[in-house]
Structures are given as structure tokens and as C-alpha cells.
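Problem: given the chain below (682 residues), write out its structure.
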Amino acid sequence: MHNTNMIKGLRYCLLFLPLFVRAQSTDIYFDKGVELFNSKDYDKAIDYFTKEIEINPKNAQAFNYRGVIKQKQLNYAGAFEDYSKEIAISPATAFVGYCNRAFIKQVLKDYKGSVADCDMAIAINPKYEVAYLNRGNAKNEIGDFNGAITDLNKAIELNPKFEMAFNDRGNSKNGLGDYEGAMADFNKAIELNPQLAMAYSNRGLAKEKTGKPDVALLDLNKAIELDATLKEAFFVRGVIKNDLKDFKGSLDDYDKALAIDQKFPQAYELRGITKLNMGDTTGALDDLDKSIRLSPNFAESYYNIGEIKSKNDAASALAAFNHAIQLDPRYSDAYNERGNVKMELKDYAGAMSDFDKEVVLKPNDHVGYGNRGIAKMSLNDFKGAIEDFDHALKLNPAWYELFFKRGLVKLALQSYDAAVIDFTKVIENEADNIDAFTNRGIAKMKLIDYAGAEADFNKVITLDPKYAMGYYNRAELKTERKDYGSAIDDFSQAVSLDPKCSNAYNDRGRVKLLLNDIKGAKTDFNLAISADANSAMPYINRGRIEADENNIKSASDDFSKAIALNPKIGEVYLSRAFLSLRTKNIEGALSDLNKAIALNPQQAGMVYAVRGKIKKDMGNFNGALVDFNIAIKLIPDLGQAYFERGNIKFHVKDKSGACADWKKASGLGVAEARSFLQMYCK
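Solution.
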């Protein structure tokens, strides 16, 4: 879940209402209004100020007092209107009106407008410290913490005992991550006013950020003791309790914060996270929805909804992350999580695009590089994957899961020694990691370190005696070592543990073929197909047996089925081509040979030789020569290709070239070439 201990926008912005200078007046309505205001009888006071304004619509102070009352009553639109009228009456002297309207603009989240009003107040009265305080707070809200500190420094210069300026400068330092500096400012604010609850609350937040949650709780408890209506103190205490896994206590604090202010979106959001931690997914989503309804531009709530939905509703998760990114295009965590959802959907290119963005936004964070490497790995960009894995592991050398991923890529690149090193690194940290032992064993097998491979596969079986793939991999090793009897035993154990393990049936069938147990092999290929009808290799292997037994149609059906399942296996086209030749279907044979070559031209030496023989028999000597030349280039010891090429050269009267090829073929064991040498090359 997304940084639930980070509290954005939690800065106490107590905008001081000015000490009004009472005008010399004989107007009983204005005087009575001031009297009632001072006694906090605001409802009656507002009536008297309204009557005063009706009689004297140019009384700027009456508008100011009435605006202050409306502000206290949370009638921000009314307060804004009164402060604006005060400014209109006397724009050249209304620094108090500008300052108070700046407060209303902050409440309405018009922070730039708030800064502009403070600018006007300061232009009228450059020594009005409250205007610097308010402007500093507005800058805090837009993330201009350094600009805020400049303003708050000025406020402190003008009034060294201005505890709120120290408090709010501490908030700026919190925003910059200067928690020690922030605590020093909160200490000063508390020294100047030991009853300033918000300073204790903010100091608690700073202490929590320095890894002192227990000490932070003491400050928050003190803040609540001093002011039981301070919703932010309950909120921060709820965050800390959640981090300490005191979910019940955290929930209780969020409830109290919301009892004070039912329109507190951050409290709904983080209460939702706590509910999620308690297993209440429905309640969590309900709270996050409330947070969004109160603050539609609150990107973190959409992010957290995406996190929840990503577990079982990818489409809704993507929509939530899209919304979070739309609201905050620099929300790096949202790009990361959206990328993870795209990975689950196998949209690897889309995922990589998101991880690219995360890396740009957080160049020193290992997660983005690691996830992008995994996306590249899925796209078979192994070189790019290793570059990203290397960078991620440089940033976080303890990310052992990534050593494993890098080992898999090195295995795919046939860098077996390097793969062994990575898998060993994982095993050193996790001595029971079955996957690491398995893949290290495979890498060792490729290095012909059969003893090391067997030790790793034995370890896998020891760790989990019911893990079918442990026996399967050991059987593959025994097949490599030509220990066919033991290999069959391990394949049999694998299928007894996992009757759906098609590969084990198939490979046991291959071993039986090596032992000339044709009937047993065919039975295993049938079992492999029953276990997984979508696996191509058992059809290919069964087809070859059918071909050897001259069951042409059955063999052809098996090869065609294999091609339908996996059209990228070149060898099956070659097998089907041989069948076509047996039935004189030359055109079909050439078509299959062409497909086999197109799939992997650099590994098709034998296919070129077969196609060359067909072309020669059809009288296409030039085409045949081209194919035999390529076949010999790819397989320099392919004796039959030299022999057939020699035959073509002899036919076109190139006797010396023919003799040279027959001599080469004879040296490679082609008996017929030896006869031709004796007959034509004396």
C-alpha cells in the first residue's frame, strides 16, 4: 500500500485574525457589534454589524468584523464577499482585508490567489508579520517549501516571539525532509507557548519521520490533552498506530478525527488503509470512495483503490491508476503499480513504458529498474534486462529476488557460469529456495558439472519430496549421463506425483526409444497427449514412430497437429517433408522444407541438403548447387552434401570439382563416393 505514513498537506495554517483598532464612533450598532464579538456572541454580533452596514455601507471595519464571524461559522463564501467589499472601500489601506481574504482562498484551495492577496497586504504594510505567515503557509501548500521558509524567516525577524511562525516554518522543514530542523522550530514554538497543541502534534510527526514512533506518540497525546478538537493530532496518531500494527487503536483515532470533521478526506483515505490491513476490503473501498467524493483531485485515494482492485479486477485497477496519474502526472508509484497490472495482463510493452516513466521520476530507486528489467525479460530483450538488473542491484544489493531473475536471463543467454553465481547468491540468503537450487542444477548440467547438478537436484527433492519437477530434472540429468534405467525411475516418480506432467511422460518415452522399447515409448507419448493435448512434442515423437511403422496417414496427422499447436518448431516440417517424399508429394515436401528454413536459416543445414537433393532430382542443378553450398557452410562435415554436389559438378562437366567433392565425402565416410573416385577420378 502506498506510503500510508506520509501525510501530505498536514500543515497547520492558523491564519491570525488581526487585532482590530476600534474606530471612534457614536454608532450604537457598530459599538454593540464589537462588544458582542468580544464576548463571542457571534450570532447577535453579526446582526448588529449588518444593521451598521445598512446605515453606513462605507464602514470597512464593519465588513471586516462580519467577515471574521462568517469565517468562524465556516461560511467561507460569505466571509470572502465581506473581505472583498472591505478591500473595495479602501484598497490602498486594506492590508488586513487582503490578509484575511488570503486565508479564505487557502481554505478554498486557491493557493496562488492567496499568495497574490498576501503580496498586496505586504505591499501596503511591509511590516505586517501575519501577511508573511499566511503567504508562507500558502507556499507550503503548493510545495514551495524554500519560498515558505523565506517568508516565515521574515515573520520571525519582525516578531521574534511569533510562535506560529516557528511552528509553520517547522512544517516547511518537515516538507523538505529536514526533520531535525523542524523539531528545533517546534521546540521553539512550544517554548514560546507551552499550550500550543498543534506544535506538539507537528513535532510528533517529525519524530515519527526520524524513526521514533513511541516518542512521537507522547507528543500527540500531549497535543490531544491540550486540544481535544485537534483533528490532525488524532489523524497523525492514527497513522503511527497503523504503522505499529495497532490497527484497532488506529481505527479509533481516525474515527475521532472524523467525528470532529466529517469532511476530512485524508482521514477517510487512511482509515480505509487500516480497514484493509484488518481484512475489511469492503469497508476500505467505502472509505476511499468517501475520500474521493470529498476531494475528487486526491490522487492517493485513486492509487489505493487501484492497489486493492489489482488483486482481482485488473480493468478497475487500471482505471484507478489512470485517474491517479491524470491528477498527478509525477506520481511515480502509480506508474509502477500500473506497470505491474499490465505485466499481469501480459502487456509487456505497456508495462515497460510505465516503468520507463518511474525510472525518470525516481532515478535512484531500485524498484523501477528491477521491474523494467522483468518487462524486458518478458519481451526477450535479455541484454536490456541484465542492464536494468545490474543497475537495480547496485542500488539495492540485498534484492535477492532480482539475483534470481538475472540468473534466469543468464541461463537463457547460455552464460551458465554467471547464472550459477547468481543462483548461489540467492541460496546463500535463502537456503531452502527450491527454484534457485533447481535452476542452478540446470546451469551446472549445461556446464557438464553432472555431480554438482545432481547434488542440487537431490537437495530439491530433500526440501520437498513431493515436488514432481525435482524428480523430472534429475531424470533429465540421468538421461544426459546415459543412466537410462535410473532416468526412467525418476520420470515414473514424477508422473506418480503429478499425473498431468506431460513432459515427464514424453521424455520417458524418448528414453524408452533409446532402449528400443518402441511399444512402451508409444504408450508414453499417448499418455503425454492425454495429460496435455496442447503440447506439440508428444505428437512429433509419436508421429515419428508411426512413420517408422509406415503408418503414413497417422504420422502425417500427428505432424500436422504439432504444427497447428506450435508452428515454430522447424524439425516437424522436416519430418512431414520426408513423409511427403515417400508419397511422391514433391510440392508438399518443398513447401515444408521452405518453412523449416524460414524459421531458422542458420540451423537448417540438413534441411538445405534435403532440398538440394530434391532440386537435383528435378533437374534444377543451379538451385541444388546453391542449397548444397549453404548446407556445407552450415555443417562442414556433412558428407552426403559433398557427394551430391560432386554429382552435380560431374554432370555439368566440372570433373576436377566433382572429384574434389567426392574425395571430401569419402573422407567423411560416404562409401558411394569412394566408388565414384575409383571409377572417374584416376
